[in-house]
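QUALITY CONTROL LOG
STEP: pairwise intake check
CHECKER ROLE: data steward
CRITERIA: each record must contain a sequence immediately followed by its structure tokens, with no blank fields

ENTRY 1 OF 2
RESULT FIELD BELOW
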Amino acid sequence: MRIVAGIWAGKDLMSPGKRVRATAEEVRDRWLSYLEPYLEGARVLDLFAGSGALGLEALSRGAALADLVEDAPVALHALKANVAAFKLRPLRRGIPPTAKDKAARIFKRDAIPYVRGLPEGTYDLAFADPPYHSRKLDLVLERWEETRFARILAVEHAADHEVPAGGKRLEFGEIFVTVYGQPRRRPRAAASASGKGKAPTRSGKNPT
């Protein structure tokens, strides 16, 4: 496993092992390339983070903050090692991350209660890659429909898993990535240049 593009292109990632299904490199590359106009300075949520490859790839391509949510012990070891390898700091009080001064946080939590506690607009982009055919994907989508905790939500799922209509679908054989809620406003890079956008603050939620 490795970072495909951006400032860390080619850097190796520790794999969580065969017991955890990682997003294929070609899927991750096309997924993040599609969303790249909205990554500059973005606040990103990586649910079911596994090794953290999606969140770290987003940081490599311009995002400022990645919150990585994972509760499986077999994945957490690789996730913590990868964050440490990139020397990513946690958020410093009162000092938001930027596209050049990045931050990452690991939350050892189940993804469903985590998203249920998020208010609207906490993140710019959210990724979800739960086990295929899992009810957890449906619960994440239901929560996002109720409360848009991210401006854009992109989910990976099996081709035969029915998801709500209205998203942009990227197809990879038996694997789909569906992207919801793309803004019709200017991309994140332009907003960052005007000084808009701060890192989220969430009381009562302590990262590992």
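ENTRY 2 OF 2
RESULT FIELD BELOW
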Amino acid sequence: MGPPFGGQAMKESFSKLPAEKREKIVRACLLEFGAREYGKAALDRIVESAGISKGGLYEYISSKEELYLYIVELSYSRLYEHLQGNLDEAGAALPSDILERFALVSRAAVDFYVEHPEMIGIIANSSRIDDASISGKARSIFDSHFDAIFEGAGARGLAFPKARLVELLKWMSVKTRSDFLAAMASGRDIPTVVSGYIDERDFLLAVLGKGIYAEAAP
């Protein structure tokens, strides 16, 4: 799957912070951006949670947008590392078949969603931003990671261009994780939420693999 992606740029002073303080700021950002869409997230709540001043925060960032994109990139990178770690642990490789690859990756992703609800909140909310400029930049981060996972998938036997099918799988990924987040927010128990996610994913993959007709039309 290749190496993890590098993070979005931050001021050099941020990277020089002691690890504990840096992680405290990151954690406050994850909680704020994970719980609220970009437009409703507030730097005031972030600095309060991190135990720093707003002026102190601006020693490390140039803008709210820069900070947000850094957190979006961080969330995708950690998801990406989780998927790679699962493959390494199992001694497995990504299947060449594009649907089998999506099934494997999406199943590993759901465990990450359960373990890191704030990050799935950020990932899901990044597709619902009113500001076209920020939305486009967040989408670019998603595209980069998603495309890297599927760049080695085979194209033999596909009835449609692989690039268009990958775009369809992106739509499926956005839909299923948004449904997953909504189900988690409803208060259902985790096994039920995970089961519903898998059932929906399997249905969509079955439709893609077999089509909607039980037999060919005469």
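INTAKE CHECK: passed for both entries
DESCRIPTIVE NOTE, ENTRY 2: The chain has one domain: 12-210.
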